[in-house]
Amino acid sequence: MIKTRITEKFGIKYPIISAPMGPFYTTRLAVATSEAGGLGVLSHVTLRGVNSIKDFKAQLEYVVEHTDKPFGFNVRTARVQGDHKILLRKIPEWRNKDPRLKEQLIYGLTSAGSPRKAGAMWKQKAPDMYHFHVGPALWLVDKIVESKCDGIVATGIEGGGHQSYENISTLVLTQQVARKYPEKLLVSCGGYASPEGMAAGLAMGADAVAMGTRFIASKQSEFHENYKALIPPATARDTILTTGGFGPIRLLKNKYALEHGEVVSKSEKIQQELGYSMDGFLEDLHHYEIVYTEGDVEDGAIPIGQTAGLIDDILDVDDIITSFTKEAEKIFKDICSHIS
Ligand SMILES: Cc1cc2nc3c(=O)[nH]c(=O)nc-3n(C[C@H](O)[C@H](O)[C@H](O)COP(=O)(O)O)c2cc1C
């Protein structure tokens, strides 16, 4: 049995977390992950026609109806994410009113913006909920630590979906954060899709690893079958960083990604965002919706990580979590048996 600070504090069996993957739903995936002994995480869903506030509450209710295990959620606190302030306020209110949520909703992950507002609010309204923030580079992790978050999700450039302009690998970043902030809870994310990777992440000092693409390619994830089917044949070379809503985004190289444009610099991107019209925003979102609802994998945006190169099959969430942990344990034992 691998025990870490996170398995102990969160009361979970295995040090594996499902990464949030908005604007898509990961509700059933979160249930399956938590039921299997990992920590399932709800995504910040912003598909068109969805009232994200009501929808978030419905997702929380769905999870507590379907599992009695701990779980978490993500709120993207980016400038352009219009609903985030309401969510930061509402979630602890809902949690305080529902005893099941109070007990089970133990992990709030903010990303894509600042952790400060959430930190200040949640420390007051939900002091027993662990607040983590995504950090893509050590200097940004310094700011997360200043804002008194309980933990860090160190996410490197090889991961799927939105990325920062920092270009730091998970391998380097995880070691840097573990070395500089040994007292902080640490999740390592981006590039994990194998037991070997999981063992390496824990060996570097992570208390858990988080995986996105590996869980998309699972039987329980609610991603379109056409999307899932692209992952096993994809290689590590089949992704590209293009310009996304909050900065660079790693997508599968398809028609949309290749036509969508190169990553522009951070200052150009900020200028772009300041002039962002609702039409532009909705047009962008349309490419995510057509993947989700119609399975259009040519004109649709398909965020996946370089981990696609490690994934050969669509697996059951339970198998992913238990087999990865068992094999990671074996790797540790085998290494130790070679030390005389
Ligand atoms: C489809 C997709 C959507 C994502 N959306 C979000 C999001 O809404 N918020 C967030 O913090 N990270 C998001 N990410 C990043 C993941 O949380 C995580 O960092 C990434 O999946 C790790 O890389 P991996 O996919 O290789 O495991 C997304 C990733 C994917 C693949």
Apparent shape: globular
Binned, the helix content reads 40-55%
* Bound ions, cofactors and other small molecules, one mention each: flavin mononucleotide
Domains counted in the coordinates: how many?
Answer: 2
Number of helices: 15
Beta strands, count = 11
**SS strand fraction:** 15-25%
Summing up helix and strand content along with how strands pair, one would put the structural category as alpha/beta
Estimate the mean pLDDT confidence.
94
Under CATH, the topology of the largest domain can be stated as: TIM Barrel
CATH homologous superfamily placement of the largest domain: Aldolase class I
Give the end-to-end Cα distance, rounded to a whole number of Å: 23 Å
Low-confidence stretches: none
Strand order of the main beta sheet, please? Answer: 1-9-8-6-5-4-3-2
For the record, what CATH class of the largest domain applies? Alpha Beta
Largest sheet: 8 strands, parallel
Q: What is the element string, with H for helices and E for strands?
A: HEHEHEHHEHEHEEHEHEHHEEHHHH
**What's the architecture of the largest domain in CATH terms?**
Alpha-Beta Barrel
Radius of gyration: 19 Å
Question: What does this molecule look like?
Answer:
It is a single chain. This protein has 340 residues and is of the alpha/beta class. The chain has 15 helices and eleven strands. The longest helix has 21 residues, at 317-337. Bound molecules: flavin mononucleotide. Flavin mononucleotide binds at residues 19-22, 24, 43-44, 74, 76, 111-112, 134, 155, 159-162, 189-192, 211-214, 303-305, 307.
